[in-house]
Amino acid sequence: MSTPVFSVDGLWKVFGPKADRVPADPELTALPAAELRTRTGCTAAVRDVSFGVRKGEVFVVMGLSGSGKSTLVRCLTRLIEPTAGTIAIDGEDVRAMDKARLRELRRHRAAMVFQHFGLLPHRTVLDNVAYGLEIQGVGRAERREKAAEVVAKVGLTGLEQRRPGQLSGGQQQRVGLARALAVDPEVLLFDEPFSALDPLIRREMQEEVVRLHRDEGRTMVFITHDLNEALKLGDRIALMRDGRIVQLGTPEEIVGSPADDYVREFVRDVPREQVMTVRTAMRPASAEEAGAGPAVAPAATVSEAIEAVARNGGPVRVVDAGRCLGVVDSEGLLGVVAGTAPRKEVA
Ligand SMILES: Nc1ncnc2c1ncn2[C@@H]1O[C@H](COP(=O)(O)OP(=O)(O)OP(=O)(O)O)[C@@H](O)[C@H]1O
């Protein structure tokens, strides 16, 4: 597998007096959060976290309020200084970067889209979008041309001359997104960008992110406390609790094989048929079944397969590149919906 874009190893962020001593002292690291606070006055917002963000994936950091999501993602570009551990972007040590290199990292390589847009109120939409390019010293004509292109990409055509105050929340968020995209960063970091939006606009923005990702394949790190958003957007999800990653996996892994009771409780109400794929419901095909008949792809959801089985009135093949991997029938599909153990994977 290719080198991760971001590699994080043994990362700690401790707030408070003499924070450095906490990660280095096994007695302190073993303390629960409340006791650590009483004993040392310190909060360990991120505790010994390791992961890699793969090129082209949407990596979601999810957890309840206070679990450490924002601190973790801010540490990636040292908007917050880590206390211990290593962070690399494309193999380059982020903690060793000087000020100029860091500025370049934040402006060009890993741009952040914030919840509160951070738009300049007296500037037009176009100038707000061009702002990042302006700081980079790109000439006026070139930055206006690039800004116009990105404005169109996020669906704001016709609103170029408005000021932020004349836009809806969703439109303002699109401007924030366009501004981050204009500098063409290798990675886009999203800090709960949609949590202030009403549900319909929020869904629209989520679809926008999915579309942008599909069209461009840009690497994205997305913070959210909303499980449905995480499941919808994430190729992989890091689920955080008290500063630690309690499980890192695909939506299907997290919903289908929760790592512990906390995760199990977290995903309890998820409609499994919309997340689990037919691989978990499959059984081996008999020679007769394997030969012909309607088929679904291995990435099809259980929900899609239920439709196919209902239409066919019997088992449906799971076919990948012309090869029959197995079949799904109503019994197997119902087992997944009911949450009984998935069948052992075949092939
Ligand atoms: N500057 C700070 N000083 C002291 N403690 C802090 C500071 N910033 C964050 N914390 C603490 O670190 C922990 C993690 O906070 P963080 O903001 O990263 O969580 P979060 O998961 O992003 O929460 P939310 O979803 O509410 O934004 C919390 O206990 C918080 O109180």
Automatic annotation (TrEMBL):
One of the record's GO cellular component terms: membrane
Family annotation (Pfam families): ABC_tran
GO MF annotations in UniProt: ATP binding; ATP hydrolysis activity
Ranges of residues in domain ABC transporter: 31-267
CDD domains, alphabetized: ABC_Pro_Gly_Betaine
GO biological process terms held by the UniProt record: glycine betaine transport; response to osmotic stress
Annotated keywords: ATP-binding, CBS domain, Nucleotide-binding, Transport
SUPFAM superfamilies: P-loop containing nucleoside triphosphate hydrolases
SMART domains with a match to the protein in the record: AAA (SM00382)
Stored InterPro entries: AAA+_ATPase, ABC_osmolyte_uptake_ATP-bind, ABC_transporter-like_ATP-bd, ABC_transporter-like_CS, Gly-betaine_transp_ATP-bd, P-loop_NTPase
Family matches, as PANTHER family: GLYCINE BETAINE/PROLINE BETAINE TRANSPORT SYSTEM ATP-BINDING PROTEIN PROV (PTHR43869), GLYCINE BETAINE_PROLINE BETAINE TRANSPORT SYSTEM ATP-BINDING PROTEIN PROV (PTHR43869:SF1)
Family according to the record: Belongs to the ABC transporter superfamily.
NCBIfam families: proV
Protein name: Glycine/betaine ABC transporter ATP-binding protein
